[in-house]
Each structure stands twice: as structure tokens, then as C-alpha cells.
């Protein structure tokens, strides 16, 4: 992962827009989070259904805003939640991808009860709930950085140096250029390189 911001999709019912706007502004102000809210990101003329799907696919995490409005409403918000759950199935076990957020005392839908949720109500508990969200998002970005650290080291042209520092099985990390042929499996390295 480069130094890009954490992409966070905000799933919500349109009736909850005022509180979700407030959440969007708070997340944006963090500086390291790029929240996705339809009214902020969609441009006139775009196919909103397709753009929402692309945003969910690109998201590092999704905050699912739950309320009496969203859990009882039929229509697009239910389809959006189903799509989010489908994408979550592609994530490794233990990944903080879905963060259920209750905006009121609604019952959490059965299909997302498996994830720990956080409450953003009553109003005096807003800050406590918000800090829990931030802690989850911090965990997510740290895990993304750990996961991609090897790729970053390898992508900057210092493959042999990285191998010398990290291989301990043979010669306590000391290898020569002739000891190994390093072959890249990444698509951007279409030409196989030998060291």
C-alpha cells in the first residue's frame, strides 16, 4: 500500500443522511481517511448504481449505518448491503471490512450480526462510538500496510537487498547473486528478471 488514504464506503438509508453527513465530515477531517458518500462523490450524469458498486469494490472498509429507517426499508439499501456482504466474502478471515454502526436502537439484521457493531447513540455517547470506529479503521490501515510491505520493498528495485536482509535459512541472510534466480510473479513485471 502506498501512502494513499484509507477508502471507507458509507452505506446508509437516505433518511439518515443528516447524521451520515456529520460522520462523513468527521472522517474526512481525520486526514488519513477518504470517506465515500454518494452526495459528495457522485457527479451529475454518472450511473449511480455502477459507481456505488465500484466504490464498494475499491473500499478498504465499509461502515454500514443501521437505523430503523435502513433495516425496515425495502429497496436499494438492501441491495447495496447484499453487495457489500458479497464483497466481504472475498476478504481474508479476520479482516475489518464491514463495520456495523447503529444510529438508533434498531435491531441488527441477522445477516450482519456476526460482526461486532458500535452504537452512535444516544447523542452523549457519539464521541465514544466515533473513537471505536477510528480504532477499527486504524487497525485496518495498519494491516493493509503490513500486508503490502513486502510488495513495496520489492517494487522499488531492491529485490536482492530485501532478500539479503530477510532470508535467514541459508547462511544467516548472506547470499550472492548466483545463489538464486529471482522471478517476479506480479503482472507489472511482465519480463522475468534474473539476478
- How is the biggest beta sheet arranged? 5 strands, parallel
Given helix and strand content, the structural type is: alpha/beta
Low-confidence stretches are: 152-164, 166-195
CATH homology group of the largest domain: Toll/interleukin-1 receptor homology (TIR) domain
What is the name of the CATH class of the largest domain?
Alpha Beta
Q: Quote the distance from N terminus to C terminus.
A: 25 Å
Shape: globular
Provide the residue-averaged pLDDT: 83
CATH topology of the largest domain: Rossmann fold
Return the domain count: 2
Q: Report the CATH architecture of the largest domain.
A: 3-Layer(aba) Sandwich
Discrete helix count: 7
Please give the share of residues in helix: 40-55%
The fraction of residues in strands falls at 5-15%
In order across it, which strands form the biggest sheet? 2-1-3-4-5
General description of the model:
The chain is α/β, with parallel strands linked by helices. The protein has two domains: 6-151, 3-Layer(aba) Sandwich (Rossmann fold); 157-195, no CATH class. Helices cover 43% and strands 12% of the residues. The protein contains seven helices and five strands. It has helices spanning 17-29, 38-41, 48-58, 68-72, 76-88, 126-155, 159-166, and strands at residues 6-11, 33-36, 61-66, 98-102, 118-119. It has a five-stranded parallel sheet with strand order 2-1-3-4-5, with helices on both faces. Helix 3 packs parallel to helix 5. The chain starts with 5 loop residues before the first strand and ends in a 29-residue tail after the last helix. Residues 152-164 and 166-195 have low confidence and may be disordered.
Amino acid at each position: 500500500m502506498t501512502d494513499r488514504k484509507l477508502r471507507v464506503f458509507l452505506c446508509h438509508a437516505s433518511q439518515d443522511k443528516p447524521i451520515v453527513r456529520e460522520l462523513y465530515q468527521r472522517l474526512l477531517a481525520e486526514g488519513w481517511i477518504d470517506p465515500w458518500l454518494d452526495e459528495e462523490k457522485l457527479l451529475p450524469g454518472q450511473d449511480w448504481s455502477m459507481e456505488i458498486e465500484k466504490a464498494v469494490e475499491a473500499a478498504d472498509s465499509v461502515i454500514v449505518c443501521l437505523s430503523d429507517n435502513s433495516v425496515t426499508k425495502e429497496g436499494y439499501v438492501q441491495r447495496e448491503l447484499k453487495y457489500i456482504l458479497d464483497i466481504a466474502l472475498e476478504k481474508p478471515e479476520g479482516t475489518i471490512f464491514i463495520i456495523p454502526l447503529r444510529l438508533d436502537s434498531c435491531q441488527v439484521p441477522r445477516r450482519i450480526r456476526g460482526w461486532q457493531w458500535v452504537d452512535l447513540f444516544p447523542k452523549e455517547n457519539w464521541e465514544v462510538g466515533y473513537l471505536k470506529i477510528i480504532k477499527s479503521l486504524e487497525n485496518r490501515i495498519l494491516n493493509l500496510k503490513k500486508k503490502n510491505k513486502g510488495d513495496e520493498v520489492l517494487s522499488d528495485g531492491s529485490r536482492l537487498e530485501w532478500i539479503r536482509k530477510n532470508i535467514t535459512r541459508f547462511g544467516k541472510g548472506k547470499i550472492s547473486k548466483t545463489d538464486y534466480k529471482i522471478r517476479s510473479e506480479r503482472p507489472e513485471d511482465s519480463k522475468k528478471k534474473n539476478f
